[in-house]
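User: Hi! I'm working on a homework problem where we have to compare a predicted structure to a textbook description. Could you give me the structure for the chain below?
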Amino acid sequence: MKKLFYIFLFFPLLLPAQLFADEEYEYTSEWTWGINKNTNGGLIGGLMLRYSRSAGNDFFETYGLELSNVRHPSEIRYKSQTGAGFTYGKSHYLYAIRLQYGREKLLYRKSSQQGVQISAMAATGPTIGLEAPYYLSIGDEGYRQFGPVNNTNPPTYPPPQVFIGPGRLFQGLGESNVIPGLNIKTSLLFEFGTYRSNVAGVEAGMMIEGYSRKIEIVPSQPNNSVFTSVFFTLFWGSRK
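Assistant: Happy to help. Predicted structure tokens:
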């Protein structure tokens, strides 16, 4: 599995410069935005914004911003007696703010009014990780962060029945620990825009991201400082 991950990670860099020939058209810049789904996220893994500008010879410089909520693979959703859903065992969110600089190589041009355009991209940059407390409601007693109820070895944790739901939206964000990191990704982009100035398509690829220390998301399980993921992004935008 690890070999397959690295093969896919660097595969776009090995593709030939142009796969097919087609009617050519030129554009110099592009703005795209999209919704991300990845193996470390929920139903919606994150959001992205990217600006690209021509660097000549079918290459484009890219500047990207991604916002993502990174989940632990052992997270389990529970429903309380009131019907509210919450994640039992979770002590922190990990919000990843990624800045990325990369290069995109145009492999196959679509015609001016129809067709599919295929590109390969590699990007890297710093990550700002926000390790934010995850609070749970315990009724009249207010809110508490999940953790052991005593200092025994192994520690004892409260049962799920103690909690009646999650905390308030963005509660604990102001108490976040800032953890620096680094991300790198490679991907293939398939663009299906009907007209020359419109952009719509799918980006699929792999990402590896590392932080300066382990991120405590679920304290009762092993936590990591390095995360790998497979992702796809639905994107829209415009070019000129």
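For your comparison, note the following. The first strand starts at residue 29 and ends at 38. Helices lie at 2-10. Good luck with the assignment!
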